[in-house]
Amino acid sequence: MSRLGTLGARLYRGEVGYDFVAKRKIWYGVSILITITAILGLAVQGLNLGIEFKGGAVFTTPKTSVSVSEARTYAIDASGHEAIVQKLGNGGLRIQVSELDQAQANKVNETLSDKLDIPVNKINAEIVGPSWGEQIANKAWTGLAVFMLLVVIYLAIAFEWRMAIAALIALIHDLTITIGVYALVGFEVTPGTVIGLLTILGYSLYDTVVVFDGLKEGSKDITKQTRYTYSEIANRSLNGTLVRSINTTVVALLPVAGLLFIGGGVLGAGMLNDISLSLFVGLAAGAYSSIFIATPLVADLKEREPQMKALKKRVLAKRAKAAAEGVSAEDSGEPEDAETGDVAPAGAVVGPRGNRGRGRPSGKRR
Predict the structure, then answer these.
(1) CA distance 143 to 149
(2) Please, are residues 164 and 155 in contact by the beta-carbon 8 Å criterion?
(3) How many Å apart are CA 313 and CA 258, to the nearest integer?
(4) Positive or negative: CA dihedral 84, 144, 174, 261
(5) Burial letters for 230-254: b for 16+ Cβ neighbours within 10 Å, e otherwise?
(6) What is the pLDDT of residues 277-320, one digit of tens each?
(7) Which of 213, 288, 232 is nearest to 19 (CA)?
(8) At what angle do helices 191-218 and 242-257 cross, to 10 degrees?
(9) What CA–CA distance (Å, rounded) separates 151 from 205?
(10) Count of Cβ atoms closer than 10 Å to residue 357 Cβ
(11) Is the distance from CB of 317 to CB of 311 less than 8 angstroms?
(12) Which of 129, 259, 320, 361 has the most C-beta neighbours closer than 10 Å?
């Protein structure tokens, strides 16, 4: 077994682990700082909306030897507006100029034809109205609201309302960071960006739901034992799925990175590049929130319950008594995990064979 596989198995069995939940205030502070930075960037700098949202014209040329900077200068001089020029994979250029009407677009087209030494009929000119982008944005907001509502209802039914709230906060966290990165860096927002943002919602929830499922099983009949608090069980569940979450995220990021850096850089910018960019940023933010935000937040909410407060008191009292008397875990009178030697929570599956001892055959003993 590889070293990573061995680590994953030890994390799953609880032999090793990192206390994510106990250090949750650090993660909350980091997330709040990142979120505030993203919001400030969005408020101060705003989003660089594409012409689909502002209206304008797009000129696509065949292969040309004119550089991007030269073409940008020609377009700005002809239109009087800022222009965005991108090199395409076939050697052509994609020139975007916002806020142009048909007459202005014809003038820019003629100027580009003259400066680039390309016949007018070889330059593909498209006029885009702002109303189309506005419709896309409105539908996106509607889809986002419906999606989040369904997620909250499903998680509240399948798990509980605290997990639904934690997952919703993690989703908002991921979207805010992704949009904030676009604002701070100045990436252009296109319909492809909107598609990418809606796509990352499912990826963001995947790891969170996996951890929540393990937490639901591990915390069954939790008040009948005095070995672990709810936060400690939540941390064990998180560590048990940690390597799987990392592997899933890396495997998802690799093809997206290929689309972003190879597809966008080699084949040329376009819808593919816009989608992959938002996916890449969103997947990374989703992996972070699943580990550092969602589960610690559930633990925080659960620890406020009277039953969990009482459980924590009993656990701490028992540990203090055991420390004073020098009593080991084996003398506590609770079922012991055959793999790790830890006392397992009541109702949890103990060891690879349940409550059977390691290596004991399933038939009758002779």
Answers:
(1) 10
(2) yes
(3) 51
(4) negative
(5) bbbbbbbbbbbbbbebeebbeebbe
(6) 888 888 888 888 888 999 999 999 999 999 999 999 999 888 88
(7) 232
(8) 170
(9) 9
(10) 8
(11) no
(12) 259
| Residue-wise pLDDT tens digits, 186-201 | 777 887 788 888 888 8
45-101 tens-digit pLDDT: 888 887 777 778 888 888 888 888 888 888 888 888 888 888 777 788 888 888 777
The whole-angstrom separation of Cα 74 and Cα 202 is: 43
How far is it, in rounded angstroms, from Cα 124 to Cα 226? 73
- φ/ψ of residue 257, rounded to 5: -65, -35
The one-letter code for the residue type at 361 is P
The C-alpha atoms of residue 356 and residue 172 are separated, in whole angstroms, by 44
Q: Which residues contact 25 (CB under 8 A, 6 or more apart)?
A: none
- Which residue reads 């028992």 in tokens? 318
Residue with tokens 């590889």: 2
Nearest to 283 by CA among 202, 359, 213, 342: 202
User: Following DSSP, what letter does each residue of 63-109 receive, concatenated?
Assistant: S-S--HHHHHHHHHHHHSS-EEEEEBTTS-EEEEEES--HHHHHHHH
Residue 351 structure tokens: 């060891």
Following CA atoms 32, 37, 38, 39 in sequence, which dihedral angle do they give, to the nearest 10 degrees?
A: 90
> Which of the 8 DSSP states describes residue 121?
G
Beta strands of the chain (E only): which ranges?
A: 48-49, 56-60, 83-87, 93-98, 124-128, 188-189
Question: In angstroms, rounded to a whole number, what is the distance separating the alpha carbons of residues 289 and 171?
Answer: 8
Q: What does the mean pLDDT of the chain come to?
A: 78
Sign of CA dihedral 115, 120, 124, 126: positive
Which residues are registered as beta bridge partners of 83?
Answer: 97
Which residues have CB under 8 Å from 169's CB, separation 6+? 293, 294, 297
Q: Are strands 48-49 and 56-60 parallel, antiparallel or unpaired?
A: unpaired
Q: Say what the pLDDT of residue 351 is.
A: 37
The answer to whether 152 and 168 are in contact (CB under 8 A) is: yes
